[in-house]
Amino acid sequence: MTRAATRRHFRRCAPVCVSRFLSSAPTQPKAQSVNFLIDNILVVAVAVLSGAALLITSLRGRAGAGVTPAEATRLVNQRHAVLIDVRAPEDFAKGHIPQARNIQPADLEQKTTSISKDKPLVVICGSGRDAAKAALTLRAKGFNEVVVLAGGMGGWHQAGLPVAKN
């Protein structure tokens, strides 16, 4: 095919090809998106729930890593970690980790001012849930290394470690 013939062919076919392309292009992308969501509501619901689960997991991770009783003991012995027990005073009096300070979650802001921000903190509660909330508060207050005792006092008892009583 010569150059002139190619030009003539293109001039004849180009308008037809362009019109076919434009007619097949979506005219309402928003409507198609809405239709896709409606047609695939189950897939969308699973995606949203998965995202929420990931978000919750990542927020819990910010509370501080969980350490075993053996790791907590090592932190106290080697790095002079401060033990903060956030249980009720009655539970603390029944038995607590030696050297632990009993500070209620509501008093964390005021009663931790004397602790260096660079010292590791081990937060303890009955099971580990309340300690995670307290760890978030301490992190927000500027403490660099805050960890939660995995299993709380129950984990400490199971490990057979010493308990002091008031």
UniProtKB/TrEMBL annotation:
SMART domains, A to Z: RHOD
Q: Which domain of life is it from?
A: Bacteria
Instruction: Quote the Gene3D superfamilies the UniProt record gives.
Output: Rhodanese-like domain
Q: Where are the transmembrane segments?
A: 41-59
Rhodanese domain sequence ranges: 77-165
Q: What keywords are annotated for this sequence in UniProt?
A: Membrane, Transmembrane, Transmembrane helix
Listed name of the protein: Rhodanese-like domain-containing protein
Give the taxonomic lineage as stored in the record.
Bacteria, Pseudomonadati, Pseudomonadota, Betaproteobacteria, Burkholderiales
